[in-house]
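anyone else get weird line breaks when pasting these?? whatever heres mine. first is seq + tokens for prot A
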Amino acid sequence: MRIGFIVGQFPSLSETFVIGQMAGLLHRGFEVDVVCNGISDYNFADRRQEPLATLLARTRDWWGAAGRTRPVIERLPAKLRDKVSTALDMSSVARLNECDVLVAHFGHNGARAARLKKWKRLKPPIVTIFHGYDVGVPLYERGLGRYNDLFEYGALNLTVNGFFRRVLVEAGAPEAKVAVHHMGIDLKKIPYAWKSWRGSPLQLISVCRLAEKKGVEYALRALARLRAVAPELAWHYTIIGDGPLRQPLEALASELGIAEQVSFLGSLAHQDVKEWLRRSHAFVLPSVTARNGDVEGIPVALMEAMAAGLTVVSSNHSGIPELIEDQKTGFLADERDVETLASRLRFVAEHPEQCEDVALQARKKVEAEFDMAALDNDFAEIVSRIARAEGDRATSASIALTR
């Protein structure tokens, strides 16, 4: 069976879950094609290693050689840009039509494919996976109507959490066409290794892009509050990642008087990140809804931290409560609630023994609901079922024509 993936730029450092899902299908005997919005320079991974070597050999730009003109086209007036873009999208239809099922990651890519389906240019059924930005921003802008064609012509819409499913159904998606399918992690590569911080400084860590929705600002403010109310507690906060807010966040740490207890390391290689996680006790990610409506799905970084035995401190945001139950599998505060966040961090600092059971329950939660192997099995069954249903419809139509 041949599955065509429709994605943005490929491969993307912030979307390794997409590569993981593709690899899961390859491992299960599927053929995988990739149509993307530009091929990246692979600076975060060796293109000669699997699964990237196989995937890149089967990857092409939506617009072929015309992809080089994308920067020019993006500067055109809106109506002309849409017409040119649509004409160029047609250039990939022949290859996409060779697939049994199309999987679009992010709603805008699904909508793009659905337009071709509406115009009867695209044949395979479309499965679209919604992750966060593609739900939160149009919800904020009251623009979920942009998915109307997808709701009508798509075969199935999968959301990474239950919150997104409710949003899409309320926006008009048929309930039977929307289901929750979590992203997961490879538990075989993440050994559980809880360690106590009794008698030593609490090592806190965040690994994320330094953008508004990650909420690092509120982690810094909560830690400044913690130092004010409990100056005797020893802790250090390591932040791995880069992004548009790095300089403002560094300035905020200085302004709050905690710069000597905070380290900004920038982006690091995956192996180095794993080593820093091994040295750490607690993972902090107090995500928030950004001013433009952007939201998390369920952050994979939280799953990985929970699997590794770190105590996680996060927020009541989007689908995160589907992963973390407050004071059972981690600790939660409301978005931007600095006081409660500081209180949760203080509890973690002062009660390592209680946190050991929380960490163990967190590992069990991830094993039960976010195991990549099990989720890949489910996904393989989903696309196989949709392909069989499409084949049955085509057979019925052919019989009807011959009568």
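and prot B, same format (seq, then tokens)
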Amino acid sequence: MCLSPNILPAFEQLNLYEELMTFAKRGREGHFYSDQLKVIATSLGLPADVVGYDRILLARPELYDMLYSKIPSEKMHMSKKVLSFQQNHEEVMLRFSDNTTIHGDILVGANGAHSAVRQHLYKTLDKQGLLPKADTKDMCKGYMSLVSTTEALDPEKYPALLRELCETTFIIGSKDIPYTWATFTVPGNKICWNVVVQTGIEEIADDQFRTSDWIPQQDQAMMDAIRHYKTTYGTLGDLFDVTPIERVSKVYFEDMLFETWTHGRTILIGDAAHKLLPNTGAGAVNAMQDAVLLANHIYDIKPTSFENIKRALINYKEERFDAIKEQYPQSHMSAKLIYGHTFSERILRQVVFNWLPKSVQEKQLSKDTAYRPQANFLPLAPKRGTLKIIPQWPSMRISKEEEEVKKKVAGVVAL
């Protein structure tokens, strides 16, 4: 997983940044190679003294473990499968497959691209004639990926593991090899690897694509077919051999920007509301930003009346939607550059990597990095770097409380 400066201030607010860095590596550049390991390009991020933070890379399970350890166990209910929910002016009731129910004020569907909350919500709205036609379409699926992390490796054999900074490589196959494979060094003397194939070009990938279930034997067949591809650490097979097959995940690179995020007491966030192509951690970072901004708007609900809840959820979408919408063409462009293997995409890669002025790239990077929401109701993380940050909506509740204090102070002075 890659986390950018767009979300790291929120980790700092929660006093989690230092712990996060104990199992993450800073990544300041990425190296692009051909399948014969010929250098294609090197990408450099903006300096940390400008943006305040380096982007960081880490093994996803360690982040899960850290976050899970901070949540009281009684607040987590595992192995629950959502069947349906009902909502009215008084509450929302969620029903699970084990015949249990739970009642609450707000239902947040943060359960992924194929969210059961979204599916039930849309089914209900469609019956009522309230669902936009755009939200009835299927998600686009253009790429498929196998991803995992090796066991701890011998630094003498892999000296890059001892370097302070993450070594990031992308190896882009030739016209006869419609794959891109990447490696990232992470703490613990491990290497994260990722193999992405464009669908509609390679038969074995399309066979995998048609199989929605994760079956290790099928993934093993695909891995066997590509194990001879070169990396800067030997072959892909060398990394596969030190990776337990049960840790390998098959991921579809789907994308969809849904129009309907909220209705009544229900709100969708993360991949349930907007599935971005997961280039450079965009999906994970945006989901975390959603959580931060939704928390801000929930904090503003006072008192917790039905109308106040609806207004807060609508305000959340109004603040967030345009920022997400703006990223869609960027995520498509990034996917074409890194994973695209059609003739036009190869030409595009040549133009961007070799002819696009560095100043243009830096201008876009600055714009992308300037958006970094934080929790309004917590002390803000200290300003880091010289980059001007895009302002977020102020807290209506805090603004109202501050105004009331000013009136009281003015009243005392007048007396």
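btw re prot B: Residues 306-339 form the longest helix (34 residues). DSSP finds 13 helices and 19 strands in the chain.
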